[in-house]
Amino acid sequence: DGGITQSPKYLFRKEGQNVTLSCEQNLNHDAMYWYRQDPGQGLRLIYYSQIVNDFQKGDIAEGYSVSREKKESFPLTVTSAQKNPTAFYLCASTLAGAYGYTFGSGTRLTVV
Amino acid sequence: GDSVTQMEGPVTLSEEAFLTINCTYTATGYPSLFWYVQYPGEGLQLLLKATKADDKGSNKGFEATYRKETTSFHLEKGSVQVSDSAVYFCALSAMEYGNKLVFGAGTILRVKS
Cβ–Cβ of B46/A100 closer than 8 Å? Predict the structure, then answer.
């Protein structure tokens, strides 16, 4: 079955450490997105990519980085510059926006 | 920029009650509109969508109609069940903005038996 796989489901980060969240899709979608969700709040866009080897900053890109070397993969790195990284991170993809977006099951990142 | 406003929750209903969750949007173009549902600890699932004015999206007993004149996309269900308890997000996307999804803040629905 086609879908989006995010890993790991839970991730713990020490202060000053970089961590990378994985997002893989086998839907042949061109566009991929990373969102951050904080308790009781909506989703905020971190980065997005509409084509391989190209990506754009979203509304809250500071302290994050991404790459898009393959169509199927869009990893997100949470750097030490992100001062408040504890949140639920969701990856999504779409073939074309009007058809809807498919979401992964999320990664919950906690700073310890 | 584009934005979505939805009613604050939590909304608490008894089983078989009628549900309405209001959603209004601001957009300069002609966005597609969506309702997503999120169950505890999970990602988002597409519930229904509408791509142009007067379209009605429907799924699992939920309905929403794209009203351009009132810039609204209210979610309704005639008879809710306990299993409908979740967080509901209204969202829009527009080609003019790279098809990015813009979300409302989400509405928690709690259904009591």
Answer: yes
